[in-house]
Design goal:
mainly alpha, 121 residues
């Protein structure tokens, strides 16, 4: 994946509900609100190391579930395949417009495009 923060926020989006309330709160503050460990510790009344431990445990829980299920990996692959389908449908539509002007091809490319869009939602 692109970078650590992006990977962690994806994990949180998919598996955040598996965390304890405290893990969710600290994880959200650290990755989504961009607070430092020290800021979170000060606001929570615990040590910086305590905050780090909670976040590292949360990351571990979510990564373990991803390792077992592969949902994010499959989601990313599906998005790439959908983009390829949309691109191919667009090229086919352009080719039809320039060379064939066949209404059946136009209809089929519209069906393909709508189906790809529905998969994205």
């Amino acid at each position: 994946m692109k970078n650590q923060t992006y990977r962690m926020t994806m994990l949180f989006d998919f598996y955040g509900e598996l965390l304890t309330d405290r893990q969710k709160e600290f994880f959200d503050l650290y990755y989504n609100e961009d607070l430092s460990l020290s800021e979170i510790a000060e606001n929570s009344g615990i040590s910086r190391q305590g905050v780090r431990d909670v976040i590292v445990r949360a990351e571990g829980v979510m990564q373990e579930v991803e390792d077992k299920t592969g949902l994010i990996r499959r989601f990313v692959q599906m998005q790439e395949h959908i983009a390829a389908i949309e691109s191919a449908a667009g090229r086919l539509k352009t080719l039809n417009y320039r060379q064939y002007e066949d209404p059946r091809i136009e209809e089929l490319t519209d069906v393909i495009s709508r189906a790809a869009q529905a998969l994205k939602e």
